[in-house]
Amino acid sequence: MLRTLLGALAGMVVTFLAIMGIEVLGHVLYPPPPGLDPMVPQQLERIMATQPAAALALVVVAWVLGAFLGGWVAARIARAHPRIAATLVALLVMAGVVGMIMQMPLHPRWMAVLGLLLPLPAALLAAGLARPRLPA
Fold this sequence. Notes:
mainly alpha; membrane; transmembrane; transmembrane helix
């Protein structure tokens, strides 16, 4: 059980790093308009209104890919309970999506729906792929 918890913890770290990395890439590809700071909540609404759908989709990709990569790492470390470790990672991502939607409800509904539906299947797929292969 300790390996499962350690796997989940390592997976969560990988998830966080993956999501942050992809979101930084998104800010490079789709920078906010000049003079607007995404850290100021009042300005965030104007930034969101000007962002193309591809920029918003990249955020969803970050959540899903983060859940996948973190789920894979969690499952590889957990060994005995890979699905449990990967599920914990996915639940963390989903909790982050809920928190973000509650904090900034101006996100399009499709982002919330996809952010809640896709991380768990992505993490479980990764857990399935992370199983050690039997020698031929």
